[in-house]
Amino acid sequence: MNYDLIFTLGKKILNGEQLTFAEALQLTQIDEADIPILLGIANKVRIKFTGDQVDTCEIVNARSGGCSEDCKFCAQSAHHDVKFYSYPLMSEDQILQAAKAAESHGAYRFCIVTAGCGMKHDPDFEKITQSIQRIGRETGLERCCSLGILTPDHVKALKSAGITRYHHNLETSKSFFNQICTTHTYDERVETIKNVKAEGLEVCSGGIIGLGETWEQRLELAFALKELDVDSIPINVLNPVKGTALEDRPPLNPMEVLQTFAIFRLILPTKILRYAGGREKALGELVPLGFLSGINGMLIGNYLTTAGRGAVADLNTARSLGFKPISEHA
């Protein structure tokens, strides 16, 4: 019976053992009526291995639109006909202002995000490192950035500027990646993650569910992240944007979204599993249940091109469920 399988595998993880791909696949085939049981087990695993703290991060879209890459989900791609406000890199003062606002909202980390393939021959790179240094001088925030594909020299420069974690999503599984993006490869993304880890920095890397991938491909992503030993795994849910190639993708069932969170927690019991973009539209009133399905991190406030619930609502929800947001000032 489904619930016997869930309890058996849950005990295995709680005893310090690892979930296999075949076992994870079995958990994708349970009855919908048994998904709440799976969520409860995932929550218990989260409590045992990561406690009651929630890692909070706020981002700034510091350079927007006009991206050369053809990622089918992305409103910022120049390959799509999306009515979208593009702008060059924000000034240092504007980025600092966003960081101070994030700190006032209760964020523990702040991430500078730029549209584009990566930093090769990018004239803005030095300005970005200067902004990172200034944030370090004038706030107490942990600093992160998401600048696309990096060389080892870029990573060294970012580490010197004060970055402690770098964000670079795999987006989806290797077997599905070329259905989502053709202008760069999955292996290039993996190489950047390895370059970051080689410098001793933490890695934030996850993906988007609901792109049209199979359950097997979704699990392939989870196990790839496990093999790469990433520290933080943001799970986004596709929020189709009019004008992109995926504008007509049907939404996932909310219970499937929660089931995905729970299975990722069992595969990655000790890691930060981060609530990210699309959760509000995908889950609606069920958003609080995400925290009871293994989540222990979240983006607060708004996302790159869409609005969130707001930092206050996000943090209030987490606190009401017994979570303690990590804060330098706590």
Mind explaining what this structure looks like?
Homodimer. It catalyses: (4R,5S)-dethiobiotin + (sulfur carrier)-SH + 2 reduced [2Fe-2S]-[ferredoxin] + 2 S-adenosyl-L-methionine = (sulfur carrier)-H + biotin + 2 5'-deoxyadenosine + 2 L-methionine + 2 oxidized [2Fe-2S]-[ferredoxin]. Pfam families: BATS (PF06968), Radical_SAM (PF04055). There is one protein chain. The protein has 330 residues and is α/β, with parallel strands linked by helices. The protein has one domain (21-26, 38-325): Aldolase class I (TIM Barrel), CATH 3.20.20. It has 13 helices and ten strands. Strands 1, 2, 3, 4, 5, 6, 7, 8, 9 and 10 form a ten-stranded parallel β-sheet that branches. Helix 5 (125-138) links the parallel strand 2 and strand 3. Helix 3 (35-50) runs parallel beside helix 10. The longest helix has 16 residues, at 35-50. It is globular. The N and C termini lie far apart (45 Å). 46% of the residues are buried. The model has no long low-confidence stretch (mean pLDDT 91).
